Amino acid sequence: xxxxxxxxxxxxxxxxxxxxxxxxxxxxxxxxxxxxxxxxxxxxxxxxxxxxxxxxxxxxxxxxxxxxxxxxxxxxxxxxxxxxxxxxxxxxxxxxxxxxxxxxxxxxxxxxxxxxxxxxxxxxxxxxxxxxxxxxxxxxxxxxxxxxxxxxxxxxxxxxxxxxxxxxxxxxxxxxxxxxxxxxxxxxxxxxxxxxxxxxxxxxxxxxxxxxxxxxxxxxxxxxxxxxxxxxxxxxxxxxxxxxxxxxxxxxxxxxxxxxxxxxxxxxxxxxxxxxxxxxxxxxxxxxxxxxxxxxxxxxxxxxxxxxxxxxxxxxxxxxxxxxxxxxxxxxxxxxxxxxxxxxxxxxxxxxxxxxxxxxxxxxxxxxxxxxxxxxxxxxxxxxxxxxxxxxxxxxxxxxxxxxxxxxxxxxxxxxxxxxxxxxxxxxxxxxxxxxxxxxxxxxxxxxxxxxxxxxxxxxxxxxxxxxxxxxxxxxxxxxxxxxxxxxxxxxxxxxxxxxxxxxxxxxxxxxxxxxxxxxxxxxxxx
Amino acid sequence: xxxxxxxxxxxxxxxxxxxxxxxxxxxxxxxxxxxxxxxxxxxxxxxxxxxxxxxxxxxxxxxxxxxxxxxxxxxxxxxxxxxxxxxxxxxxxxxxxxxxxxxxxxxxxxxxxxxxxxxxxxxxxxxxxxxxxxxxxxxxxxxxxxxxxxxxxxxxxxxxxxxxxxxxxxxxxxxxxxxxxxxxxxxxxxxxxxxxxxxxxxxxxxxxxxxxxxxxxxxxxxxxxxxxxxxxxxxxxxxxxxxxxxxxxxxxxxxxxxxxxxxxxxxxxxxxxxxxxxxxxxxxxxxxxxxxxxxxxxxxxxxxxxxxxxxxxxxxxxxxxxxxxxxxxxxxxxxxxxxxxxxxxxxxxxxxxxxxxxxxxxxxxxxxxxxxxxxxxxxxxxxxxxxxxxxxxxxxxxxxxxxxxxxxxxxxxxxxxxxxxxxxxxxxx
Lengths: 527, 429
What we know:
A: two-stranded antiparallel ribbon, B: alpha/beta
């Protein structure tokens, strides 16, 4: 049952305003004094940034934060979620790629549990508008290897990335899109290596099973030509089995690096998967002449030898092991941990992970069942903010500004400058979801905000006219608050935006700059 | 307990891929993702005067070292490359090699690097590369950048770990290193106070110039109250913007008559020169040059590879004249590529992925003016790896480790190159 707590369960950080002395502008100092003197000023700057963590009970979490890199709650700093004291609002921020006024209203109407179930039942959500656009604009996504194998790689990459952006931004099936993003990284495939093969993988592996049962997702991936090519299983021979896929399916896809397998298990599993390859232009094919039919022992389980005349039946070794991996307690733990970290917090407690792992085991790896436990309202209200990765940030900015988007190439390019060129992470572990990894490079985000806010062309158009109906700085910023921040902008930010806009509230340039600042702001980087 | 890793230090083996931590709250780090196993080293204070800035150049694609440093005394080279071999120095042909010694020469495309060689500032190391035999571009590049083959849990780069374990050249520098690229190169991952900056001359908030400072100020103020590490990242960004604004990149005048061509590598080295001379605390710069994957119509004498090599050589030559020649700046330049290419040309007048390669090291404190080899054999089939490739007889990490220790003043070579014991080769003076 959904309840709105009577008051916030979060420590309320002091609202803006009170704490800080006027901040010197770094750049102003540099301008006056020149490089040599400026260099000597660098020490005070560094000292300011390197405040020690104060002692005290309020920073028990901060101490833990040091260990795992979650946001450090230093007193005086604004907890990004401190203004979000409704459970449904927190939920919308977590299960969507950006909380829009519509979704916040829907969640309020349906209540916490109702909205979660609504998003979980993704297939029942009418998404026909987006489906139609995707079919027309990104037709390659529906094509077969035979149709795709001669198409220019760049075009394929562009359609894959643009469609991912488009769906993440505009689909109503938001939780589904979040899970697609998770599994795309979990079952990472470097598209420049495998090209068009990823199209089928995106459609028939990731998107087919994103909210289904994990063992089925794992199996689909193991039969995916894109995955087999990416991890070199297509090169695996009876005489020299390639261990790459066998290692990664255990280490990265199922059991996790501490899952308890040995190097011997990797070698034996590679023998099981020998012969799992492609045929034709990119369909899965089991190749008996490449398969090792001898007896094998993997994870303590013996697989009997078969005569080489067994032919196609040799695929059974791999199928058997897929079932073993799908049911393994280490897989339950690792996948439970992955989903919990993705949806809830960077540092879930071992107790919670164990509970979610228990759900995995008792439901045969039902992803929806795990999500229900992970997103119980008390846990969510207790969770610190997570930091948007650039893809999430860009998509949330698109969702906030609701542009007319006929071509997302600009956004795709900007993702590259932000260090998140989707489908182009080359090692098998996928883009990380770590605060430390993404926190560093802010200027490209600020510039993306500017690029988007100023988009006013046939490809991408952010319409600011609705913001400017009442042409005063206060009214315009109030509109921005409703449209982009669900009404939850902090007082301080509202005031600062108004201060920026006041000199020229009827100037569309100035208004767009103000939009850019709002999107680039610190509070828009967290969810 | 998984024992899937090689038998290294136990702490290191227990590392889980994603459990990296930063240092204590005092570290205002930008892109740092330092592994838990890295000991908290006592950072040795180093004498800044004798410590170099490092400019690291990665030639992406597997550059053909046998074209970049021609073994003109070896008849096997000519037998294996009837079309694309570069003629001996005593040939009448205009594309003849320029002799560096009695065994090796530069192609005409690298003529601009000869002065640095003659001045004793340029060392060529030949038959070098990785001990790992992968011929996959992205695997081979990754292994070189992280400084160790076949360890999927190692995501920091060798240069990143160096910067993380040595005191800053300038205390409090907001920018210690940069990657001239949109995304930080793997070589630099883990480096504190480091950013990917594709164009240092344009590191600023976009949009109207009239309001640029105002908007930067707004963001600085806004981020002042957000959570760490984002807060410090914002301060770093604003400080870096201010810092780079102070350097006149557009009006930069190279010394020594040097001219940087308007190529990507020319611009990159020119910006680097300006940054280094501004002396603002930047101590490492990573840049990349593409176009080396010459499977087809390689033509190192007049065609595509000639152009690629000439672009590189001219830029390095200009950098030498501009920055290194007079000896006023302590800089070491290293140029590597992920693997070399086959000794014999293929049916498409190009070469396929190979093993041993040439590597360049340039600096006033480098024992240059020679081509360094180890157990170099004539390139007859029986002396080649798999019958087709120049063997790797010098681990490229030997060269880098010596530079880290002797020129970058960092004794923590065992962290920079984990599970590796370097052999001293005498790269530095």
